[in-house]
Design brief:
Two copies of one chain form a homodimer. Chain A is α+β, with helices and mostly antiparallel strands. Chain A contains eight helices and nine strands. In chain A, a hairpin with a 5-residue loop joins strand 3 and strand 4. In chain A, helix 5 crosses helix 8. Chain A is globular and about 60 Å long. In chain A, 45% of the residues are buried. Chain B binds a DNA duplex (30 and 30 nucleotides) through helix 7.
Chain lengths: 247, 247
DNA sequence: AATTGAATTTGACTTAGATCAAGGCGAATC
DNA sequence: GATTCGCCTTGATCTAAGTCAAATTCAATT
């Protein structure tokens, strides 16, 4: 029944983001790129570290060391509760930063681990030998990145707070799509980097429900799913769903 | 049946936070307080503007002008969707900042309005005449405040993502309590600055449900409610509820 | 290619919470 | 003090989503 959907996983070398589409780029520039001092940059930024799926980048509360930028692959950040169960707070795709909040606070606010093997750049910020002017620029960029992050995080309220799972899922898929497009990846046909369980956890619903809603959406012709491969067939209708506009 | 609970509203003059418990204080210091240059500070910070309930501080997308710090009263920030309905993303109490994200972005990321009349300080940051060193400190403080904000925002995931409304509400109440205590206000007996509707909106449930769960909690002796006045009678049990520990 | 184990789908059943609709209470206004 | 309006509570009913369990598919490994 399902015609096989084949989409390229995010960890494919093809989909590695170029530096100027990476959120870290602004910081890299301050740290050496714009002065043309490549040697200095190299000392600070370790580029393209390969990381295997399942590995942990850092734990919640751990002393801050690096800011990570995703080059390829996919990552999640999450909070662990006293009772052992985890709450995913965000997913991270190529071009996006992980652990940023740790810098100003001195420790990581959440744990982060790898969903789909890939590569990261990481920046050892603490030992930056910078001038006051550079530092000023640096913290300003930092503030910008953090502001975007707050905004993103608040938008997630719409997603979780929404009445129907159908709606949450529509918003979720469109959001993934947008983020992929922003970094130059295909937006209407991609591979979900996370399992149903993780989607369910993030949206605050049961994984069976995610399954059911996905198949329902497929029956309605909105999307095509085959395992983790997904295609948004009628993005317009999805967008309507996301905004609760009646048909 | 209900013995009258009387609690002081947040807008009471008694509960106005002192400067050194205010999140803006770090920024104020950079902007003049630490140099002892009071005149300069006065030019930048307008102190204690009275604001009436229902008024709007700013709209979403509006050009950034001020960072606000709550002195007394209560505020909410929210996103408006295409279909007209709003999603509250945060409440703001004495000592807390509003609109911070706008600075780096150039425009406000959400709308903010007044729940309970009170007063604010506001800071006209854009025209700060500061040295590079001061600016560096300034943006660094900014980054710290924003990092805390991201953290706070992500913690809210636990609140909304949680299975039962009972749990969400427990977390919500404890969170309010903590925030009040941090600013030197009583933590176990306070007045809810927002209506049931707003709580429900924030938690992503129906207002009737908030009502029901509150009365249920009262029946169990966990809390005492009378209108907007509330008393946390067995904080320990509430905390257990919040962490899903079985009794 | 066969085996194993995990992830996903599907089904049957149960339940928490939404919705609709009255009724009660309290604070502001006259 | 009576009146009004908006907020809050309570009840009855309904439905979306949770839970438990079995079946199926997928992917990793030998």
């Amino acid at each position: 029944m399902n015609k096989k959907l084949t989409t390229i996983p995010l960890s494919s070398p093809k989909s590695e983001v170029v530096c100027n589409l990476c959120e870290l780029f602004g910081l890299c520039r301050v740290a050496g790129l714009n002065s043309g001092d490549d040697a200095r940059l190299e000392r600070i930024v370790s580029r393209r570290l390969q990381i295997k799926r399942g590995r942990m980048l850092f734990a919640a509360g751990e002393k801050f060391k690096y800011v990570y930028a995703v080059k390829s692959g996919a990552f999640k950040s999450y909070l662990l509760m006293e009772n052992g169960c985890e709450q995913i707070v965000d997913f991270h795709f190529p071009g996006e930063l992980i652990g940023l909040e740790g810098m100003a606070l001195g420790h990581y606010a959440y744990a982060a681990s790898v969903l789909e093997s890939g590569s990261v750049c990481r920046m050892r910020i603490t030992e930056l030998p910078l001038s006051d002017t550079e530092l000023m620029q640096f913290w300003q960029r930092q503030a910008e990145a953090l502001s975007r992050r707050v905004h993103h995080c608040q938008s997630a309220f719409l997603l979780i707070g929404s009445k129907s799972v159908e709606r949450s899922l529509a918003i979720f898929l469109l959001n993934l799509s947008e983020r992929f497009v922003e970094r130059g990846l295909p937006g209407y046909r991609f591979r979900l980097p996370m399992g149903r369980e993780d989607i369910a956890n993030y949206l605050g619903v049961a994984n069976e429900t995610v399954s059911r809603v996905l198949t329902r959406m497929q029956e309605q012709g909105l999307i095509a799913v085959s395992g983790r491969n997904i295609q948004l067939r009628v993005p317009v209708r999805l967008r309507e769903l996301a905004c609760c506009i009646e048909t």
